[in-house]
Amino acid sequence: MRKHEAEEIVSRWREQMKKGYLKLAILLALTKGPLHGYEMIKRIKELSLGLLTPKAGALYPTLKILEENRLIKGKWKKQGRKRKIKVYEITRKGKEVFQKTVEKHFIIISASRKLLLKELKTLGFIENVEAYPQLFLQTIKVLILDENASSRQKIEALEKLKQGLQKLTETFNTAIVNLEKRIKELEKET
């Protein structure tokens, strides 16, 4: 396969992934309450910490797909005297699909992270390999998926996540130190 063909395939996959993430972002935004399009763009940007800012040209076709699949429903409402806006809300089916998708997504992410850490250990750049898939998944379940979670439960979940991330940071810092040593060794050889 030529380089150009590979880049084209990667580009198509990236676009498909963006569409998938947009669907998830819309469902997440609607778990917080009904929204119209412009509010949704702002909420998605806020929830994704600015990493995802959908354009209207991508948002509205995606809303239509989600509505056709009965994951969301839209209702026209009057705004002012003449103007109408369509306000969307997530359906029970949409909540179920969102929850299952997020759980599966985090399992994939956890497996990828575990594989990376295992490879870094095999290469001798880190010593400990601790997997945190359950910790991350439990935190997501409390913060995003459990509508009835108390403030105390959310604080506890965030504290556990913070501790896990600190351990992971220590692991990566060790890897960075070891990588820098290896780079210096290789530079001496040249």
Search tags:
three-stranded antiparallel sheet
Could you please describe the fold and organization of this structure?
There is one protein chain. The protein has 190 residues and is mostly helical. Helices cover 72% and strands 9% of the residues. The chain has six helices and three strands. It has a three-stranded antiparallel β-sheet with strand order 1-3-2. A hairpin with a 3-residue loop joins strand 2 and strand 3 (83-90). Helix 1 crosses helix 2, helix 1 (3-31) packs across helix 3 (56-68) and helix 1 (3-31) packs across helix 4 (92-122). The protein is globular, with a radius of gyration of 22 Å. The model has no long low-confidence stretch (mean pLDDT 83).
Topology of this protein?
Layout: H1 3-31, E1 35-36, H2 37-47, H3 56-68, E2 72-79, E3 83-90, H4 92-122, H5 133-145, H6 151-189
Antiparallel strand pairs: 1-3, 2-3
Helix pairs in contact: 1-2, 1-3, 1-4, 4-5, 5-6
Basic shape: globular
- Give the beta-strand count: 3
- Beginning-to-end CA distance, first to last residue: 33 Å
Low-confidence stretches: none
Helix percent reads over 70%
Q: What proportion strand?
A: 5-15%
Structural class determined from secondary elements: mainly alpha
Order of H and E elements: HEHHEEHHH
- Biggest sheet architecture: 3 strands, antiparallel
Overall pLDDT:
83
By DSSP (H or I, 4+ residues per run), the number of helices equals 6
The strand order across the widest sheet is 1-3-2
- Radius of gyration based on Cα positions: 22 Å
